[in-house]
Amino acid sequence: MSGLDEIIIRRNTGSVKWDGIAETYQADDLLPLWVADMDFLSPRGVREAFEDYIKHGVFGYSTIPEKLYQTIISWEREQHNVALVKEDIIFTSGVLSSLAVAVQAFTEVGDTILIHDPVYPPFTSIIETNQRKVVRSTLREEDEHFTMDIADMEQKIIEHHVKAIVLCNPHNPGGRVWTKDELSQLSGLCVKHQVLLFSDEIHQDLIFSDHVFTSMLTIDPALHDLLIAFTSATKTFNIAAIKNSMVFIKNHELKDLFEQQLLKNQQQEINTFGLIGTQAAYETGKPWLAELLPYLEKNAETATAFFEKNLPEVRVMKPEGTYLMWLDFSAYVSDDQELENRLITKGKVVLNPGITFGPAGKGHMRLNLACPEQLLLEGLKRIQRAFL
After folding, report:
1. Hey, which of 37, 281, 298, 356 would disulfide with 285, CB 3.0 to 4.6 Å?
2. pLDDT band for position 388 (50/70/90)?
3. Distance (Å) of CA 68 to CA 73, 86, 285, 306
4. 141 bridge partner residues
5. Which residues make Cβ contacts (< 8 Å) with residue 261, sequence separation at least 6?
6. Which residues pair with 207 in a beta bridge?
7. Measured between alpha carbons, how far is 261 from 255 in angstroms, rounded to an integer?
8. Is the pLDDT confidence value at 1 over 70?
9. Phi/psi of residue 151, nearest 5 degrees
10. Distance between CA atoms of 307 and 300, rounded to whole angstroms?
């Protein structure tokens, strides 16, 4: 029996995933398979590092230790073949806040930014709240996974004078691990048209067997003058609340502009728990991650088999990475509000509505697989109940 099978009680802990249900749906009997954090204990080494810091008892301002830079450099080199030096790294409070800083630093009000459809909803809100324009390139579905429509992207870059592209690599919600060839085509597009690329790589470590993550930093040195890459240990090791991420920028002019914007926003200070947690995760978390990945992959297989047997008209996009599964319910329900209501009222289960990921999400839901198998099976039964 895996240690990941342990049921951790998360209700009444201030959890967005578990306690946010009452505010969102005015119900307390729903099973959450939505918000993208995991229902597993974080690695022991991370928890022990926090305990040691708390025992010290003084929580003043912290510097960024040299050791942390070297730990991140080693992790990226050994795990992802990414070559970094200390000067390439900026610490921030999160990938989304970093993306907002990049939008502010490198584009102007009224500029157009291209995203895929469907894609992680905050990309849209960050662009729009900063008074930039969103243009969407719809992903194609081929052999039950997403592919980029490079021709469509290029056409929209030209027509809309696109200033930047936001990439989700690996992809959320589709769980697609983009290949080197696909990313090379995207890189060529950016270099050809001198379009900035903001690459969200937070799911870089959550890759299933037979697939390999490729960072945009490894594609083409010519792209480095246009590339801002974002990542974090928080998604990998289930420590989202520590609020720490890394921005990798090879071009020193771009890095200076990014840091100037951080100063304008007074976002240059980092949560001490974020520094400690990141250090401990990368130093001690490999055995935990080695246990996690096959568990998540097995959960994906379990869910796929369940739908094939019990709800065969649900089209399942089996993930190649992340812990997120993209489900097409359109054969059962055509209206998005009806779909959500049926899952809530009949199934008593909460998934993320696909329509929030863009127009291509109509009739879809996103399922979070990162929970003990017992909870997943209960959630799947509740989904089935919603369509009986």
Report:
1. 281
2. confident
3. 9, 10, 15, 43
4. 146
5. 101, 104, 105
6. 321
7. 10
8. no
9. -65, -40
10. 11
HSE at residue 30, side-chain half, CA atoms within 13 A, is: 28
Closest CA to 139 of 340, 311, 370, 354: 354
Instruction: Give whole-number Cα distances, 363 to 136, 336, 359, 360, 380, in Å.
Output: 18, 6, 10, 9, 18
Residue 342 has a CB neighbour count (10 Å cut-off) of 18
Concatenate the DSSP letters of all residues of 79-145 into one string.
HH-----GGGEEEES-HHHHHHHHHHHH--TT-EEEEEES--THHHHHHHHTTPEEEEEEPEEETTE
**Has this prediction a pTM greater than 0.90?**
yes
Among the listed residues 92, 172, 90, 96, the one whose alpha carbon sits nearest the alpha carbon of residue 127 = 96
- List Cα–Cα distances, 159 to 111, 114, 163, 189, in angstroms: 13, 12, 12, 14
Q: Which residues pair with 166 in a beta bridge?
A: 198
Rounded CA separation 360/138 (Å):
7
State how far the Cα of 358 lies from the Cα of 120, in Å rounded to an integer.
Answer: 9
Sign of the dihedral through C-alpha 146, 150, 104, 106? positive
Distance in angstroms (rounded) separating the CA atoms of residues 336 and 313? 16
Instruction: For residue range 100-147, list pLDDT tens digits in order.
Output: 999 999 999 999 999 999 999 999 999 999 999 999 999 999 989 999
- Single-letter amino acid, residue 282: Y
Answer for the pair 199, 228: CB distance below 8 angstroms, yes or no.
yes
Question: Could you give the CA distance from residue 378 to residue 373 in angstroms, rounded to a whole number?
Answer: 9
Tokens 């990945």 correspond to what residue?
293
Kindly give, in sequence order, each residue whose CB lies less than 8 Å from that of residue 186, ignoring residues fewer than 6 positions away.
148, 150, 153, 165, 167, 197, 216
Residue 322 exposed, middle or buried by CB count within 10 Å (0-12, 13-18, 19+): buried
For residue 146, what are the β-bridge partners? 141
Q: What's the residue count for the chain?
A: 388
Contact 387, 19 (CB under 8 A): no
- Residue 211, classed as helix, strand or coil, is coil
Mean pLDDT across the chain: 97
Q: What's the rounded mean pLDDT across residues 180-196? A: 98
